[in-house]
Amino acid sequence: MSGRFVRLSETNRSQLTIIVDGQPVRALEGDTLLVAMLGAGRYLRQSEFGDGQRAGFCLMGACQDCWVRTEDGARLRACSTVVREGMRISTRLPEATWSNAV
Amino acid sequence: MVECRVVIVGAGPAGIRCAETLVAAGLRPTVIDEGRRDGGQIYRRQPENFTRSYDMLYGSEARRAEAIHGGFDALRGKIDYLPETLVWNIAERQLYAAAGTNQIMVPFDVLILCSGAVDRLMPVKGWNLAGTFSLGGAQIALKSQACAIGKQVVFMGTGALLYLVAAQYQKMGAHVAAVLDTSPWSLRLSALPKLLAQPSVLWSGVKLDLTLRLAGVPVYNGIDPLEIEGTADAGVQGVSFKDRNGEIRGVACDAVALGYHLRPETQLADLARCAFTFDPGTRQWLLQSDPDGRSSVAGVYLAGDGARIRGARAAEASGRLAAMAALHDLGHPQSAEIMAGLRRTLARWTRFAQGLAQAFPWPAQQAARLSDDTVVCRCEAVTAAELRRVVLETDAIEANRAKAFSRVGMGRCQGRYCGQAAAEVIAHAAHVPVEQVGRLRGQAPVKPLPVVIGEDAA
Known about the structure:
The structure holds 2 protein chains of 2 kinds. By secondary structure, chain A is α+β, with helices and mostly antiparallel strands. Chain A has 2 helices and 8 strands. In chain A, the strands form 2 sheets. In chain A, strands 3-2-8-6-7 form a 5-stranded mixed β-sheet, with helices on one face. A two-stranded antiparallel sheet of chain A has the order 4-5. In chain A, a hairpin with a 4-residue loop joins strand 6 and strand 7. The longest helix of chain A is centred in the middle third of the chain and has 8 residues. Chain A starts with 5 loop residues before the first strand and ends in a 5-residue tail after the last helix. By secondary structure, chain B is an alpha/beta fold. Chain B has 3 domains: about 210 residues, FAD/NAD(P)-binding domain; about 140 residues, FAD/NAD(P)-binding domain (3-Layer(bba) Sandwich); about 70 residues, Arc Repressor Mutant, subunit A, CATH 1.10.10.1100. A 5-stranded parallel β-sheet of chain B has the order 3-2-1-7-21, covered by helices on one side. Chain B has a 5-stranded parallel β-sheet with strand order 9-17-11-12-13. In chain B, a hairpin with a 2-residue loop joins strand 5 and strand 6. The longest helix of chain B is centred in the C-terminal third of the chain and has 24 residues.
């Protein structure tokens, strides 16, 4: 399935590649992480409260709906993070995969 | 005179004009802004490697946007500018700010808050589905990133911005599936005397509406939103609503831009202990301020949409006026004539804003009609049923108490997008006026901070 966002212009920028859940995703220089991810995919994360996928909401750093994680666990606000070549992002919740076993 | 530390928070039209006025008086203010570049939300600058012209980006406001950006560029070297810096607390005349993981303490003698506004939201069933964005967010996608939020976009809500953003999408080649306005046309006619306080702006608004209709975009007025339809996996797939004749209609779409005008960002002023007053015209709590922008706290001034929603041009005038008020209070004589002129300009914008509030009212009555399974708090998926249960079972009718019991307003947006609607739900469930519910207190940190505990560099 194609991406959620539609690029209307400014498509002649240099390309770069980021890695989302282990898969390469094409982005353009100057993209926010949110735009790169929604330009190629349908969502940014799963709601921790069980109501499905989330794709951000306010795009101005106020709602915090667009949190994603880098592979080493740092939290990023996708709407206000500019993509960099080779950035590695995980849309999976650490909470969902953590084991409760000691 | 002793060196006076003047700090401006926000680099939108109010903050920029405020800084200019202070620099012209020989001061060197500090400007702290959360954005990567200046301009605020309305005159948000696109990334450096984008090539669209001012005319393409800002339309009728192109020259103003250019003047604002040019004005700020000319201040470099004359101000201390801290971009990408979040002020997250104010205590004892100090700002607590964070730039990435760096903590910065900024003491001040004079503080001018130009913190702007965010979209004002009324929930609708399904607004938590992926593909629903705030109206302002939809505009940012276009202006700042040259993207549409979907292949078929429905614009739903009310206010001048609804038509502006829909028209901008149409112009830039996006597919606008429909514009669904909750306000009936008749209200615009009754608001006309006030709207005529700014005839040219009124005319621009009329043109936007005509442009959309001529382009064949379905525009419905006086609608009642029923549901944003879709699934947890696919996200948004359509919108259903009642038209003004009560007929149920549906529009297929993969994205919805939702917004009911704007809400001031008041958390920092709240932490600075500025007093609020309930504004019956817009049914929201606004900061107390004299006509020049003096808050109830000595040394703390307010300008722009963060103080009162009057739009970008009023923000410029109020930024100048607040700076002049601050300078006057510091003992720098100011031109009474210029100040009087700015007050007159602002009075016209205030009247126009009252007209907009009358023409495109906040749909308070929708809160009463929200189905029990509607999510009120998007952050934590708390439903209207849960909030109503808390009100009825625990008697929690005060906003902060109801928040503690229901968690509505306690999530990561800290009540920015659910707080005002939740107050309406509570007021209706408890049969009390909404002002009796009160307002959510600002809490530090005003936005989530990264927690990094490292070794002492020493």
